[in-house]
Design a protein that fits this description.
Rossmann fold, Hect, E3 ligase catalytic domain fold, 48% helix, globular, disordered C terminus, binds zinc ion
Length: 489
């Protein structure tokens, strides 16, 4: 079962907009047939589509790093972001956190190659943000070296004096005892129960639990190391624990974790894999063999179907092999890049928005000028002043919006950049941890028959959705191009 959240967004000024309730209904129907359990709704009800106020969306992106959900389900692709660059940035973030994205109703207005283009953009967006954060990180490092705190909660055992961390002599002995106890093998529950009886800590209104204890035991500040994201500075803080004890605790944590948690299985084909016999989706399941060995497989979600089970790793391997042969192949890169460029050129939305905003800005400036002339001519009332302030505000907002849009339009990719990204994908074709990216980028749908695997790629000449009946027709007449030969899995 995929732990899934639904994201829904509604703008009242769009025509034929599906209501929030309608979007959720479609998503719930989709979840029923795709082995998903809905654990939360994130909803943005914008009064106007002109504002980009999406507090729930941003909260959802933030929550995606918590590990509480595995998938995001939205009604259609356009729910996600207002332009392709935005969309690429947020999708890259979600994917980095291991989150899958599903659409209840498929609509790919640009044709399936839009998905490939978006994947290439995701790669570039990541590259750009990495470059930007390099600059920010240099600034952070400087401050850390000076031992300055960056806000947030001060760890137990320290206090902040003049923005610097200093040892709290009252709390520090407890920190030492906690590390020693844990290293000796004392149970976590006994440790945090004892901590909760401490007057100095309980007074803060919080209670220790397994995760706060875990955060403490892995916090490198106690050995003097200050880490912020991937910036790491040694001897930045006075240490409370020596390194030997700290390392002993780390290996115990690792040992305990190995014996309690189960690895999360990522079924790479879920959402794209369908049964050729009955058209239902195929979902991932875990089973145990007679010899008590766990194995993972894909199975048809229709209980009455006679479809076989397919071993997860084998099926995924075969799909990747065909993808590399049929599409992620340097001899096709020029053609794919050309298709992507066509879509990009047809996508003039950013330019439309830009010219509209520029017109609004000119109009606002004219209004301000007229008002200034009126003031100079001596026509002043209290409302004149209010109106002027209002117009200045408007002008300021428009200028910000224009520069944001200009930034977006700079994200158009060139043919060389697309081919470069395709080559980056090609280089990683044998890397299992990259399979996910390859499948997301290039594969549209897969149908499995007893004797054939039919893969529909995100590359389409007819600009029409490939349906089950199209595939079935082709299957019957056996003129499939991208059909694998029978495999016994
Ligand atoms: Zn079936």
């Amino acid at each position: 079962m995929l732990k899934t959240i639904i994201y829904a967004r509604y703008s009242s000024d769009k025509q034929n907009e599906q209501s929030i309730e309608g979007q959720i209904h479609e998503c719930e129907q989709f979840a029923k047939t795709h082995d998903m359990v809905i654990i939360k709704h994130y909803i943005d009800r914008a009064l106007s589509g002109k504002t980009d106020d999406r507090p729930s969306f941003l909260q959802m992106i933030k929550d995606s790093s918590s590990g509480l959900f595995d998938a995001v389900l939205v009604y259609k692709t356009d729910r996600f972001a207002r332009n392709r660059y935005d969309s690429a940035v947020y999708k890259a973030k979600l994917k980095k956190n291991g989150i899958k994205i599903f659409y209840a109703k498929e609509n790919i207005p640009d044709g399936p190659e839009g998905i490939i283009l978006e994947s290439m953009l995701e790669g570039f967006a990541e590259y750009y943000s990495a470059e930007l954060s390099q600059k920010v990180k240099r600034g952070i490092k400087e401050n850390i070296r000076k031992g300055l705190s960056f806000g947030g909660a001060c760890p137990f055992g320290y206090k902040i004096v003049n923005k610097k961390y200093v040892i709290d002599d009252e709390q520090a002995p407890y920190v030492k005892k906690i590390f020693e106890d844990y290293a000796k093998g004392r149970r976590a529950i006994d440790i945090f129960n004892e901590l909760n009886t401490l007057p100095n800590y309980a007074g803060k209104g919080r209670k220790w639990n397994r995760s706060s204890l875990n955060r403490m035991l892995t916090n490198k500040k106690y050995i003097g190391i200050y880490e912020l994201e991937d910036v790491c500075v040694k001897d930045a803080i006075p240490p409370i624990i020596d390194e030997a004890l700290f390392n002993k605790v780390q290996s115990r944590i690792l040992f305990n974790r190995r014996h309690t948690t189960r690895a999360k299985v990522n079924y790479l084909l879920s959402g794209k894999l369908f049964c050729g016999l009955c058209e239902h989706s195929m979902t991932g399941k875990t089973g145990t063999s007679k010899t008590k060995v766990k194995y993972h497989y894909y199975v048809c979600s229709n209980r009455h179907c006679k479809q076989k089970k397919y071993r997860k790793e084998l099926l995924e391997d075969i799909i990747i092999q065909y993808t590399v042969k049929d599409i992620l192949n340097p001899k096709h890169f020029k053609m794919i890049a050309k298709k992507c460029l066509e879509i990009q050129q047809a996508d003039n939305k950013i330019n439309d928005i830009l010219s509209m905003l520029k017109k609004q800005l000119t109009a606002t400036k004219t209004k301000i000028n007229n008002l200034m002339n009126a003031i100079e001519a001596g026509i002043i009332t209290t409302s004149t002043k209010d109106r002027l302030e209002q117009l200045e505000q408007e002008k300021y907002k428009l200028e910000i919006e224009i520069s944001t849009q200009q930034l977006n339009s700079n994200m158009l990719l060139s043919e060389e950049q697309i081919i470069y990204m395709l080559n980056e994908f090609y280089k990683k074709r044998a890397d299992v941890s990259f399979y996910n990216q390859i499948i997301d980028c290039f594969i549209y749908k897969i149908y499995i028959y007893f004797d054939k695997i039919c893969i529909v790629y995100n590359l389409n000449n007819s600009n029409k959705d490939v349906t089950y009946s199209d595939i079935n027709e082709l299957y019957k007449s056996s003129h499939l191009n991208s059909c694998g030969s029978p495999y016994d899995l």
